[in-house]
């Protein structure tokens, strides 16, 4: 789950990281009132879950409350990278003299969190990694030992931070690490961590990604979820207990088990390439009911890019005949307008295939192997089956 900038910064604030004392508005009038209350110059910032808002015109400096209202009028309703802006954050302006990047994420290869910093803050870190990889300083953090002072000093000197800021920087780095661990985050990022005209360090932008599997431990954070900001299909899937992530391809995949789902995506991409490839990741889990299969099919088909559907079921605890019943029921219930390919393997596979054959659905063909299934799904998506 991604947190909005204002939510991330609020969380940072709870851990003692200096943040601007701004507020969120959903109307131009509310933006005006917040700006008047803050007094002086403010920044009006689009709250959407993507980076690069500044470049897209979603971050604007206002000289006074009237200008803040005008900016809010323009930014609210604007589309940034496909997302509609419904909220703006009004922060007191603190023009940065220098912008630093500071973030923590999990380094899977190292099996530890890693703190990253760069003196080239403000721009997206992926871009720095591409254009100037040496500008990124990394320190791995052993979770049993925590973040050592020598490490924050390594970072501070590595990014050429003037000595006078080292104390404040160390505090911020430690607090960011505590915030990251305490929130069960997979990313906590300050970009920019600004040095202001009054020579203070302050987190002007924040981003957090939380581990969905740990949200049950953080009721307060779980409630921050903004369902307006995610694809409707992902919300529906979560409510039905399905794991669903929308992708760019044309083959809707329905699979039981995460590993099998990954393999299925690889295979469809192998035969279909980037364009045809997988339209989604979907794990219906073990022992899915006919009703869940129908819900999953509805979700897959709600994506207008989907040109064919591939069911790939490996029966273990899940019985293939149950899934076949579910697919047939779902077919009559949802009446999909696209061809479908089904591969059943494992427990009661033969019974399942017999059911599929007896159902005599012209748009539903069987495949014996995953290779054959993936090839057929690609052909079907291209309209050649
Ligand atoms: P992003 O483009 O989505 O990463 O949004 P940011 O919050 O990082 O804003 C983009 C840029 O606006 C920052 O990198 C700053 O260079 C610039 N900026 C200038 N003045 C201010 C200010 O007072 N507050 C903030 N937040 N940003 C400012
Ligand atoms: Mn930023």
Task: Tell me what you see in this structure.
- Helices cover 38% and strands 26% of the residues.
- It has 13 helices and 19 strands.
- The chain has helices at residues 5-14, 28-38, 65-75, 125-131, 149-158, 166-182, 219-222, 232-239, 258-276, 290-301, 320-334, 349-359, 370-381; strands spanning 2-3, 23-25, 42-46, 59-62, 79-80, 83-84, 88-92, 96-107, 112-118, 136-140, 185-196, 201-203, 206-210, 243-246, 251-255, 280-283, 308-315, 340-346, 364-367.
- Guanosine-5'-diphosphate (GDP) is lined by residues 43, 45, 51-54, 59, 61, 91, 93-96, 99, 122, 191-192, 204-205.
- Residues 191, 205 line the site of manganese (II) ion.
Structural class by SSE content: alpha+beta
> Can you tell me the overall shape?
elongated
Q: What is the mean predicted local confidence, pLDDT?
A: 93
Approximately how much helix is present in the residues? Answer: 25-40%
Low-confidence stretches: none
How large is the radius of gyration?
A: 25 Å
Q: Could you write a compact summary of the structure shown?
A:
The chain is of the alpha+beta class.
Please specify the SSE layout and strand pairing.
Blueprint: E1 2-3, H1 5-14, E2 23-25, H2 28-38, E3 42-46, E4 59-62, H3 65-75, E5 79-80, E6 83-84, E7 88-92, E8 96-107, E9 112-118, H4 125-131, E10 136-140, H5 149-158, H6 166-182, E11 185-196, E12 201-203, E13 206-210, H7 219-222, H8 232-239, E14 243-246, E15 251-255, H9 258-276, E16 280-283, H10 290-301, E17 308-315, H11 320-334, E18 340-346, H12 349-359, E19 364-367, H13 370-381
Parallel strand pairs: 15-17, 17-18, 18-19
Antiparallel strand pairs: 1-13, 2-7, 3-4, 3-7, 5-6, 8-9, 8-11, 9-10, 11-12, 11-13, 14-16
Helix pairs in contact: 2-3, 5-6, 8-10, 9-13, 10-11, 11-12
Bound molecules: guanosine-5'-diphosphate (GDP) and manganese (II) ion.
Manganese (II) ion binds at residues 191, 205.
């Amino acid at each position: 789950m991604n947190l909005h900038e204002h939510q991330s910064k609020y969380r940072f604030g709870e851990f003692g990281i200096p943040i601007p004392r701004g507020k969120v508005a959903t109307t131009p009038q509310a933006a005006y009132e917040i700006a008047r209350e803050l007094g002086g110059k403010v920044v009006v910032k689009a709250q959407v879950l993507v980076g690069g808002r500044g470049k897209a015109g979603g971050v604007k400096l206002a000289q006074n409350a009237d200008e803040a209202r005008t900016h809010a009028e323009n930014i609210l309703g604007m589309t940034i990278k496909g997302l509609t802006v419904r909220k703006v954050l009004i922060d007191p302006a603190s023009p940065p003299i220098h912008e630093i990047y500071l973030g923590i994420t999990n380094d899977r290869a190292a099996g530890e969190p890693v703190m990253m910093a760069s003196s080239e803050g403000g721009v997206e870190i992926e871009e720095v990694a591409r254009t100037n990889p040496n500008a990124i300083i990394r320190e791995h953090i052993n979770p049993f030992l925590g973040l050592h002072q020598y490490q924050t000093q390594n970072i501070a000197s590595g990014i050429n931070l003037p000595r006078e800021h080292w104390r404040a920087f160390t505090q911020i780095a430690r607090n960011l690490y505590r915030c990251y661990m305490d929130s069960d985050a997979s990313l906590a990022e300050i970009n920019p961590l600004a040095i202001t005209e009054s020579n203070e360090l302050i987190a002007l932008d924040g981003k957090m990604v939380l581990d969905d599997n740990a949200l049950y431990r953080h009721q307060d954070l779980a409630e921050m979820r903004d369902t307006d900001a995610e694809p409707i299909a992902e919300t529906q899937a979560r409510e039905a207990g399905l794991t669903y992530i929308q992708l760019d391809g044309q083959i809707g995949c329905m699979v039981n088990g995460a590993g099998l789902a990954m393999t299925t995506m690889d295979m469809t991409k192998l035969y279909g390439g980037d364009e045809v490839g997988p339209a989604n990741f979907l794990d219906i889990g073990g022992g899915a009911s006919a009703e869940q299969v129908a819900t999953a099919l509805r979700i897959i088909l709600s994506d207008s890019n989907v040109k064919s559907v591939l069911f790939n079921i490996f029966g273990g605890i899940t019985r293939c005949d149950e899934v076949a019943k579910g697919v047939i029921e779902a077919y009559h219930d949802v009446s999909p307008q696209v061809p479908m390919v089904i591969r059943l393997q494992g427990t009661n596979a033969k019974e399942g295939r017999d059911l599929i054959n007896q159902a005599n659905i012209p748009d539903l063909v069987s495949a014996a192997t995953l290779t054959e299934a993936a090839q057929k799904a690609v052909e079907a998506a291209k309209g050649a089956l």
